[in-house]
Design a protein that fits this description.
Shape: globular
Largest sheet: none
Order of helices and strands: HHHHHHHHHHHHHHHHHHH
Oligomer: single chain
């Protein structure tokens, strides 16, 4: 009943952002996990070693993508059942979701460790940086189940309307990661091994919290139930959450493409500079992913309960907030661009710093478009329309972006590589608006 009251209350323009704020905070902290590793690696190993994190990004994107796919797809189904009063069935679905995630984790770990060297080379590792990548790759891949569960359980807890709880769990993990990074890399001289171990331990904090939340606290609207396997339901969940998976997975693939192009344009220093820009891009997208993940359960709940007016209100507020947040983020990151890049590279006169600053300035206009694109795709996920949601994500994060990356780099060289993100988001915005208008009468938002 507590979840019902949280999701069904009458939201205003300010209160919807307040409701989403803990979720935004949660996703930002997820982004910070990777940034923290990069900062400490640059400080205690060297500025060239930071490329190891970026080279691993396609792999961790796969893990996070799978976790988010299962989490968002399962969340839409679970919350809709709660809205319909089917709490026992919601618990059964939750049990299937967790079991399926464990199976995926075992498969991912086995494949990544057996084919380690070919996969690292595919990610863009060279003779000059593969030894930096290897320890990070092995530890993170061995604990892929931790990454999957952390990504998934945070979303499911947010789906309960417990945005503050999820934020606290992620914050604890982030602080733990920072402290352990310093201890392992500075005090114990463990190098990149220490960065990877600290990250895994940080991820584990969300899992520990979820065990308490679902099995001990009694705060959840549903509980683990003994459930028979239901491949059809898991198929629906994966398909419905496919847009979020496509978005994250495509981001990993496009980073792989950008690694190769950055190396071609600038050499190994270009890959290190790209690492910083990738961190900051992920941080920007985390804000909008956090907002969207918070409002998705509201749309799902009112879709199940039939409240049209609330769907229309939240839709209007969300479109406005996407634009406002985009403008604020772009302005702040423009003003403090040198400070942001300086977190990673202390020498402001170095070639890497110069490349990163130029790339960052040329990437910033994307802030104005990415929020509506992410929200538009998430809206269809909330309505259990995985086909349209996945199509929008695939077009935006792979088709259009890949075309812009290669096309603009061919025409403009390195500057084209940095301009490609904003151009791709602007083109994708047109596609998103077309689909939002087309389906407005069906879902009545």
């Amino acid at each position: 009943m507590e979840q019902d009251q949280s999701l069904s209350r009458d939201f205003g323009f300010g209160s919807i952002l307040g409701f989403a704020a803990p979720s935004i905070f949660t996703f930002v902290f997820i982004a910070v996990y990777q940034m923290v590793d990069g900062i400490f690696i640059e400080r205690f190993v060297g500025e060239m070693a930071i490329s190891a994190i970026n080279l691993y990004y396609p792999i961790i994107s796969l893990f996070i993508a799978a976790g988010i796919m299962i989490g968002t797809g399962g969340n839409a189904v679970i919350v809709k059942k709660v809205g319909e009063g089917k709490r026992k069935e919601a618990g059964e679905t939750f049990s299937r979701v967790v079991a399926f995630t464990f199976i995926c984790g075992v498969i991912f770990t086995a494949v990544c460790l057996i084919f380690a060297d070919p996969i690292m080379r595919l990610c863009g590792a060279t003779d000059g940086n593969i030894e930096y990548l290897r320890p990070y790759y092995k530890v993170m891949s061995a604990f892929s189940i931790t990454i999957l569960l952390q990504s998934e359980l945070g979303i499911l807890i947010i789906g309960e309307g417990k945005t503050v709880h999820a934020a606290v769990a992620i914050m604890i993990g982030g602080v733990l990661n920072c402290v352990l990074d310093y201890i392992f890399m500075n005090n114990m001289k463990m190098g990149i091994w220490g960065a990877a171990i600290a990250t895994v331990i940080g991820y584990s904090s969300t899992i520990v919290f979820a065990v308490w939340f679902y099995m001990i606290s009694g705060k959840s609207s549903y509980k683990l139930e003994i459930a028979k396997p239901d491949l059809k339901e898991m198929g629906v969940i994966c398909f419905n959450g496919s847009s979020d998976m496509v978005s994250n997975l495509a981001a990993g693939v496009t980073v792989l493409f950008m690694n190769h192009l950055a190396y071609r344009c600038y050499g190994e220093v270009g890959v290190s500079a790209l690492s910083v820009i990738t961190y900051l891009q992920f941080l920007i997208m985390a804000v909008f992913m956090g907002y969207t993940s918070a409002v998705e359960p509201i749309f799902s709940f009112h879709y199940g309960s039939g409240n049209t007016e609330m769907r229309k209100k939240i839709y209007k507020f969300s479109m406005i907030w996407s634009l406002i947040l985009g403008f604020v983020i772009m302005t702040v990151l423009y003003i403090f661009r040198r400070q942001a890049i300086g977190i990673f590279f202390e020498d402001t006169e170095s070639e890497i710093f110069s490349i990163a600053e130029t790339g960052w300035l040329l990437s910033l206009p994307a802030c104005m478009f990415v929020g509506i694109n992410i929200f538009g795709s998430g809206l269809f996920t909330a309505f259990s329309n995985g086909l349209i949601s996945g199509l929008l994500s695939f077009i935006r994060t792979f088709v259009v972006l890949t075309a812009c990356i290669y096309g603009m780099t061919y025409l403009l060289g390195g500057k084209g590589l940095w301009l490609s993100w904003g151009t791709a988001e602007a083109i994708s915005l047109i596609v998103t608006i077309i689909f939002l208008k087309k389906y407005r009468s069906r879902y009545r938002y």
